[in-house]
Prior knowledge:
Elements: H1 5-19, E1 23-28, H2 33-48, E2 64-69, H3 79-86, H4 115-127, H5 129-135, E3 143-150, E4 156-161, H6 166-173, E5 183-187, E6 196-197, H7 207-212, E7 221-226, H8 231-245, H9 251-268, H10 276-287, H11 295-309, H12 311-315
Parallel strand pairs: 1-2, 3-7
Antiparallel strand pairs: 3-4, 5-6, 5-7
Helix pairs in contact: 1-4, 4-5, 8-9, 8-11, 9-10, 10-11
Bound molecules: flavin mononucleotide and iron/sulfur cluster.
Amino acid sequence: MSRNPHLLLEGILITCFCVGIHNAFIYIRGEYEFVARRLESALEEARSQGLLGKNILNSGFDLEVLVHRGAGAYICGEETALLESLEGKRGNPRLKPPFPASIGLFDCPTVINNVETLANIPGIVQHGAEWFVGLGRPRDGGTRLFGVSGKVRNPGLYEMPVGSSLRDLIFEQAGGMAEGKELKAVIPGGMSAPVLRADEIDLPLDGDSLTEAGSMLGSGGVIVIDRDTSMLEVLRIIVEFYAHESCGQCTPCRIGTSWIRKIVERISRGEGRPGDVDEIIRLASNIQGKTLCPLGDAAALPILAIARKFRVELEAPLKV
Ligand SMILES: Cc1cc2nc3c(=O)[nH]c(=O)nc-3n(C[C@H](O)[C@H](O)[C@H](O)COP(=O)(O)O)c2cc1C
Ligand code: SF4
């Protein structure tokens, strides 16, 4: 969106033309002001070239695209919460079904796609589906953007073919560990993705391989953790985030995340008790699969992975 906004606009135009849509919205977090302004000026450029508005390039096809800035709630990335927010309401996820394709924005059938998905469309139309599949894996084509953060020499955004090696992304593309430290763990697909230990990172970055490894490709946000980083602190940050971002509609998510946060904060203060890690596992298991939207699972799965894989480290500060 910041470097090549017209790629996204072209993807939106093609999608809308194919489906017969005349109004499109780019929903963006309020904090991304620079990107929102960049999109606005790209829309202006497209309009001035006759690529948006009425009777585009004399085709008889009309399309209006609007940039809508949210207020920064993570849950508004969930598609039905996004629709609520776009309608001017609180961003609470809706019950599904009905799915947005049948009843979506203002009760109209609605297509919702990720920006990365839409930006792939012009390339696929131009070069063909086989070209796209050939870039990645048979069941998972193309390239993905990986946002590498944490303890690496060169954190940043890397575009790689789907199926590239996670080790290569960290140790070649991102320059390896910062300050020559040892790798401890990797969160491979954004905060919701269950953590991998250092000995689990020899795998291709595609959906199937990460699912097989008990994690997920998710948003492609790769977080690299070194030996000097406390997994208790990583867990505390994750739990704090989800407890804060839970919209509060379902009890297991609302109560479960804040209850786990209380326990983790207690351990962090040096006041943990024997059985606390088992209690965290019990609470997170009671969130998993029992909520209205996937945020519940997105909170439970990384908590369970850290509690199970790094139990010894979490239990070290507990009072006996
Ligand atoms: C809690 C939550 C947050 C999400 N946040 C985002 C987001 O920030 N951006 C995004 O594109 N999709 C986000 N999603 C996924 C969307 O709901 C949706 O499934 C996806 O964008 C569909 O696009 P795709 O089919 O092109 O991948 C989120 C989902 C959940 C459950
Ligand atoms: S799972 Fe959490 S975020 Fe999703 S609807 Fe329920 S309370 Fe809200």
